[in-house]
Amino acid sequence: MSTTLITGASSGLGAETARQLAARGHDLALCARRTDRLEALRTEILAAHPVRRVEVRALDVTDDDQVLEVFEGFRDDFGHLDRFVVNAGVSHGAPVGTGGWATNRATVMTNVVAALCQSEVAMQVLRDQGRGQLVMVSSMAALRGLPGAQATYAATKAAVAHLVEGLRVELQGRSDIVLTVLYPGFIESEMNPPTGRRNPLMSSTEKGVAAMVAAMEKQVGSACVPALPWAPLSVLLRHAPISLLRRLL
């Protein structure tokens, strides 16, 4: 039986990932700051899938000691953890050099420093077990530098993608640990709430997360999700000249 730990599981992509993995037969270790939402999600999942095991713990991912305590606590609860999904993150930002240092610093601390800490502890567990999977939820924003208020966010998502890809270079062919980076496009969530206007690039939470979960289960190295339209658009984002990129963005 497979067990998945998900950070930032109280809402949005994390909560929907938990629902869909439970439907696929996974037990769950769910953590986030908002324990009331975690408990409600646990109740919902167990009502739909009574044979699943779902454990929840409070976690502020910017608290390094708490990350260690929670991850190791879940490992002790279940006896093993087969997959870690580093999902917790924020999308706040301000144009660099315009007085938004505090906002940009907080985004870096959550999206990079906290993700590094989660990866450190997860990899310790996976190395000790000799197997398992680390999934990093990055973003299509990681593929190029973005302007204005998105500049810092894009940089953080590029950083964590490179972190996991570096681990893949280190371990490929030498370990049974699987390293996966997901690059979600526009998926409805608390970060991308519905606006009432039709956006042909925006996926529903259910559809977007279904693509994420399918990529995790296939144990791919990396994936733009959903594949359409984001896999073809990734080529444009990576190679478009800046003059064109400015018009697109």
Structure characterization notes:
- The chain has 249 residues and is an alpha/beta fold.
- It has one domain: NAD(P)-binding Rossmann-like Domain (Rossmann fold, 3-Layer(aba) Sandwich), CATH 3.40.50.
- The protein is 50% helix and 16% strand.
- It has helices at 12-23, 35-48, 64-78, 101-129, 151-171, 205-218, 227-239, 242-248; strands at residues 3-7, 27-32, 54-58, 83-86, 131-137, 176-184, 222-225.
- It has a seven-stranded parallel beta sheet, with helices on both faces.
- Helix 1 (12-23) packs across helix 6, helix 3 runs parallel beside helix 4 and helix 4 (101-129) runs parallel beside helix 5 (151-171).
- The mean pLDDT is 94.
Ends distance: 44 Å
CATH topology annotation: Rossmann fold
CATH superfamily: NAD(P)-binding Rossmann-like Domain
**Count, helices:** 8
What ranges have pLDDT less than 50 throughout 5 or more consecutive residues?
Answer: none
Rough outline: globular
* Named CATH architecture: 3-Layer(aba) Sandwich
Strand order of the largest sheet: 3-2-1-4-5-6-7
Percent of residues in beta strands?
Answer: 15-25%
Major sheet: 7 strands, parallel
Structural class: alpha/beta
If you average the pLDDT, what whole number results?
94
For the record, the CATH class is: Alpha Beta
Number of structurally distinct domains: 1
Residue share in helix: 40-55%
* Number of extended strands: 7
Helices and strands, in order, run as EHEHEHEHEHEHEHH
Rounded to the nearest angstrom, the radius of gyration is: 18 Å
